[in-house]
Amino acid sequence: MKTVILTDSCCDLPISFVKENNIEIVQLRVNIKGEDIPDDLGQSIKYKDFYDMIRAGEMPSTSQANSYTFAEIFKKYSNEGSSIIYIGFSSALSGCVNSARIAKEAVEDEIKSADITVIDTKSASLGLGLIVYYAANMLKNGATKEEIINWIEENKLKVNHWFTVDDLNHLKRGGRVSSTVAIVGTMLSIKPIMHVDDEGRLIPVSKVKGRKKSVKELQEKLKERIVNPEDQTIFISHGDCLAEAEQLRDLILNEVKVKEVIINNVGPVIGAHSGPGTLALFFIGNNR
User: Fold this and answer.
1) Does position 118 have pLDDT exceeding 70, yes or no?
2) How many CB atoms lie within 10 A of CB 229?
3) How confident is the model at residue 200 (pLDDT cuts 50, 70, 90)?
4) Cα distances (Å, whole numbers) of residue 273 to 38, 151, 201, 241, 258
5) What is the dihedral of CA 130, 9, 76, 141, to 10 degrees?
6) Dist. CA 163–CA 93, nearest whole Å
7) Cβ distance 161 to 196 under 8 Å?
8) What pTM does this model have?
9) In terms of CB atoms within 10 Å, which of 110, 141, 193, 267 comes out highest?
10) In terms of DSSP bridges, do strands 190-196 and 159-164 run parallel, antiparallel, or are they unpaired?
11) β-sheet bridge partners, residue 192
12) Looking at residue 226, what DSSP letter applies?
């Protein structure tokens, strides 16, 4: 039975990789300036245009994929006789995994031969993308469905997510920081360092003064925590701040030898909550 990998648009992977590896993307949606737009990895709305609208004062809202959407995709592949692995965005940040589980039950009741696995990665952005990247490469190299699932379950809580943002007001709107913290932090140019914990929640860890120090702090986290760097592809995502993403990459490569660095944009659904200037780093450690 052929295995297919599905994920959702919060993976923030480059569209070229997704197309090359025939990965099905379940689209979340963003509403901005009254227009409902699919988050399809930069095809329907350019990343820069999206972030420029936020900079101009637009307040986007987002919506998850519902169980009907998942069921239609699951049915398509099940009717083709394919085995499905859905590698999903953290259930602590979105209801997509729950929608997928509801759809799985419905489709397996309807199509007795259906073989659907739903995985809550407890990961976000290119942390989710990292897992999908490794899974897709395993599939390409002949791994079985069971081997891919086992690898994901064994490694998903080793995927380190380290974030910083440029403007605390976006986190305030999402309830991640208080109004007082946002006001004082903005006045004093305080930049939070955050990570995604084992439950898949975005958690503030520390604060540094100034953007330059926050970028350096992400590099320090990698130096402290990465394992077998020479075998790893590491990932950097950014909210329309490519120069700083490249600066972070160069800082890392000056001191740590890694196999490859992939840089891509934070997509509209996550970017709606983190804002322009978000910078995030993803790699595998012994734990989160």
Assistant:
1) yes
2) 16
3) very high
4) 16, 30, 14, 16, 30
5) -20
6) 15
7) yes
8) 0.94
9) 267
10) antiparallel
11) 207
12) B
